[in-house]
Amino acid sequence: MADMRIDMQMLKGALATIIVMSGAGCVTMDVRTEHDPRASFQGWETFAWMPDRPAIQADGRSWVGRMVRQAVEAELARQGYRLDSSAPDFWVNYYVASGADLDITTTFSVYGRPDRFGPDVRDTSEETVFVSGTLVLDILQPGTRALLWRGVAEQAVREGPEAADKAIREATRRLLASFPPNP
Predict the structure, then answer these.
(1) What 3-state DSSP class applies to 167?
(2) Distance in angstroms (rounded) separating the CA atoms of residues 19 and 120
(3) Three-state SS string across 67-131, please?
(4) Displacement of CA 157 from its chain's centroid (Å)
(5) What is the dihedral of CA 162, 168, 173, 174, to 10 degrees?
(6) pLDDT confidence of 61, banded at 50, 70, 90?
(7) Other C-beta atoms within 10 Å of 143: how many?
(8) How many CA atoms lie within 13 A of 84 on its CB side?
(9) Is the pLDDT of residue 55 over 80?
(10) How many CB atoms lie within 10 A of CB 134?
(11) 30 touches 135 (CB < 8 A)
(12) Cα(8)–Cα(182) distance, integer angstroms
């Protein structure tokens, strides 16, 4: 019977830990893409950044723009595309938007042993500020500026250049995994 009580207490503790962890610190990235079904993406080899890009950049920090450009160029190069501003097969444009979100995580701990009044449950709360970020990548037809493909990634990340760089690289990798779209 003592073994059974220990196993039940361990099970309750493990279950409480899993429940708390599933709600705390697990940040998922929402990624979605769409494309013009009439567009042909076959035979493309080169890209360039869209010239005279609109100034709809919600996040004015230049280091974010550099991170996005580096991540996109690296991922497209990994896929076999070359940066060529003179005669690109497609243009790339991006938008970044961010805003602060507050996440309050409450952790419940069970102390002592259960009795007829139940276990001694205590809670602690921790406030964490996350930046809710959105990265939009557009693939456009040079000259006409027709939108051919769009990818959007949204995720809450901790503030700071290191966290932003990691999130941007991951978002870019996941977005461009669907580019070009399957025919």
Answers:
(1) helix
(2) 18
(3) HHHHHHHHHHHHCCCEECCCCCCEEEEEEEEEEEEEEEEEEEEEECCCCCCCCEEEEEEEEEEEE
(4) 8
(5) 120
(6) low
(7) 7
(8) 13
(9) no
(10) 17
(11) no
(12) 51
Which amino acid makes up residue 49? W
- Both structure tokens of 123: 């809670």
103-146 pLDDT, tens per residue?
555 554 444 455 555 555 444 556 655 557 888 999 999 989 89
Interior/surface letters 67-91, b for 16+ CB within 10 angstroms, e for the rest: bbbebbbebbeeeebeeeeeebbbb
Question: How many residues are there in the chain?
Answer: 183
* Helices and strands (H and E) in the chain: how many: 3, 6
Q: Contact 33/178 with Cβ under 8 angstroms?
A: yes
Asked if residues 105 and 25 have their Cβ atoms less than 8 Å apart, the reply is: yes
CA angle 159, 169, 27 (to 5 degrees): 50
Identify the three-state secondary structure at position 17: helix
Cα 16 to Cα 119: distance, rounded to the nearest angstrom: 12
Q: What is the pTM of this model?
A: 0.67
Contact 129, 101 (CB under 8 A): yes
Residue type, 162: E
As a whole number of angstroms, the distance between CA 38 and CA 43 comes to 15
Looking at residue 63, its amino acid is: W
143 DSSP 8-state letter: T
